[in-house]
Amino acid sequence: MNKGHKMILREHFGIKAKSDQYVIALAGNPNVGKSTVFNALTGLRQHTGNWPGKTVDNAQGSFSFKDTDFLMIDLPGTYSILTNTVEEEIARDFICFAVPDVTVVVLDATSLERNLNIALQVMEITSKVIVCVNLLDEAKKNKITLNLPGLEKELGVPVVGTSARQGIGLDKLKEMLYLAVKEQVIFRPRQLHYSPEVEEAIAQILPKIEQLGLSDYLHPRWLALRLLDNDEMLLRKVSAYLTANSDDDIYREVSMAL
Amino acid sequence: MTVDFNAIPLSQLSIGSSCRIGEIGLNGLLRRRIQDLGITPGTTVECLRRGPSGDPTAYVVRGTTIALRKEDAYQINVFPI
């Protein structure tokens, strides 16, 4: 992936990361302690404002770990990244088009079942996902026991347990982020399988999408699913954002094909 | 899908009772949103209480309370348990 293009893409979202800073997106349902994790990691080194052109709060903060600098972006809390509230659109667009180096999905340990929806959705878009199971203290209070290694095995991405309010587990999260950006973690995100009809349709259009050469940015399978959804808005954005890479005509082809 | 005569609309579920979700008769964005909130076929849902004018109604879904409008809940078929 072209580094300059990555920076241009990020600037669309008001992100001005230094060239040696890794960009981390923080996603998750509302009220899972996302901002607590964010505050605990970045402390007072924060910058808050709005997302460009939207009246939705945007917070970015920096921290370093073992001489490596990170810029963390607190995305709006959403239940999904497919439907069309402004918040969900921002969260999805950021994950798709700002190409974060790693996306952390924060889950509520007391209602994992409902929370896993967004984790699976993010894992469909990008491989580099770390799952942070927060509110472990609340879960303990409610006598909920969690098998985090088991969850990690099922999901195929790193799982870190935290109680951000008490500051527990945050060092592990930082360590994992460090290992992830240094490419010392293998991500094998579990992919959902749909009904035979849908799978057949995906198999049919997948070769064409793979030819477009967008797999550095988005999973071709996810793009195929959105094509089948006829998500016109997203497809228009794919061509708008990804055509910014001037040295490649492939992207113009996308817009034609879509 | 076979017609099941035991199915009732979610909006007719009485307060305090539970049900299993059958078919979601909604379309488009609302269908997606309902599913994102965890209401999928087979999920157990409990009716918690109703708003002062009989609408909306609060339901407990997978450990979380969410409110649905009567007209939307009417489109969801459920099996009382």
Shape category of chain A? globular
CATH architecture of the largest domain in chain A: 3-Layer(aba) Sandwich
- Topology-level CATH name of chain B: SH3 type barrels
User: How many whole angstroms does the radius of gyration of chain A measure?
Assistant: 18 Å
Give a structural overview.
The complex is a heterodimer of chains A (258) and B (81). Chain A contains eleven helices and seven strands. Chain A has helices at residues 3-11, 34-42, 86-97, 112-125, 136-141, 148-155, 170-181, 196-211, 220-229, 232-242, 250-257, and strands at 21-28, 46-50, 57-65, 68-74, 102-108, 129-134, 159-161. Chain A has 258 residues and is α/β, with parallel strands linked by helices. In chain A, a hairpin with a 6-residue loop joins strand 2 (46-50) and strand 3 (57-65). Chain A folds into two domains: 3-181, 3-Layer(aba) Sandwich (Rossmann fold); 196-257, no CATH class. Chain B is α+β, with helices and mostly antiparallel strands and 81 residues long. Helices cover 16% and strands 38% of the residues of chain B. A six-stranded antiparallel beta sheet of chain B has the order 1-6-2-3-4-5. In chain B, strand 3 (44-50) and strand 4 (57-61) form a beta hairpin. The longest helix of chain B has 9 residues, at 28-36. Chain B is globular, with a radius of gyration of 12 Å. The interface between A and B is small, with 10 and 10 residues.
Give the tags:
heterodimer, A: 258 residues, Rossmann fold, 2 domains, 11 helices, 45% helix, B: 81 residues, alpha+beta, SH3 type barrels, six-stranded antiparallel beta sheet, 2 helices, 16% helix
